[in-house]
Amino acid sequence: MDTITKKWLFIAIVFVAIGILIIATIWVFYERHDKKLLPVGYSPQVVALTTSSTPITKIASNEIKTKTYRNAEWGFEFQYPENWVVKEKTFGSYYSKFNLEIVPPGKIELFDPIVVNIVSPEFTNHTFLGLNTTNTVSEVDGVSGIKYEYEFEGLPEVDIVLPLKENKMIIGTKKKFEYVFNQIVSTFKFLK
């Protein structure tokens, strides 16, 4: 082999090695990322709570300590595990009037674990079009909405869409966080 061919072969090997290193790093991150999702002290025993037509599971109150998040401006509150964190207004969008994330402690989530997003009706009218969804009627604190279960970019998700005055409220999660999502939904209250 001549010198030029050897140089190109060396460069190709370096690029392949870097690509393998990047793929391995991403794989390790996701493997580690999926571990330790349960809050400290969580026991997977759940009790059934039935809403209008969709069963929701509720974590028994003695299993996990909770805090209450209250938003007087938009008129709602819910309980969430005390070691999780609520972050308000985490992203901006023309359609989003208000949003918050509920995230596990010390976790850097690539995707929002649990979100509450108050959006214009146009957003919900277009968001679920074209997705292969399973829709059921769901009730949250006496307000009827639609529960969507679908896969987005390879991740199973659950969203409940509820009317909120002239807007819509989306309470959503990735399927792997559904146990906390169910706790939040079962304690969700609209302020009168």
Notable characteristics:
192 residues, 2 domains, single chain, 3-stranded antiparallel β-sheet, 7-stranded antiparallel β-sheet, 12 strands, elongated, Protein Transport Mog1p, Chain A, alpha+beta, 3 helices
State the helical fraction: 25-40%
Count the DSSP helices: 3
Give the CA-CA distance, first to last residue: 81 Å
Structural class: alpha+beta
CATH topology of the largest domain: Protein Transport Mog1p, Chain A
Rg from alpha-carbon coordinates: 21 Å
Q: Trace the largest sheet across and list its strands.
A: 5-6-7-11-10-9-8
Number of domains: 2
Instruction: Provide the CATH architecture of the largest domain.
Output: 3-Layer(aba) Sandwich
| Largest sheet, strands/sense/barrel | 7 strands, antiparallel
Q: Could you state the order of secondary-structure elements as H and E?
A: HEEEEEEEHEEEEHE
Number of strands: 12
Using the coordinates above, name the CATH class of the largest domain: Alpha Beta
Give the DSSP E fraction (strand runs of 2 or more residues).
Answer: 35-45%
Mean pLDDT metric? 77
3D shape: elongated
Unreliable runs:
31-61
Organism: Candidatus Wolfebacteria bacterium RIFOXYB1_FULL_54_12
Transmembrane segments: 9-30
Keywords: Membrane, Transmembrane, Transmembrane helix
Protein name: PsbP C-terminal domain-containing protein
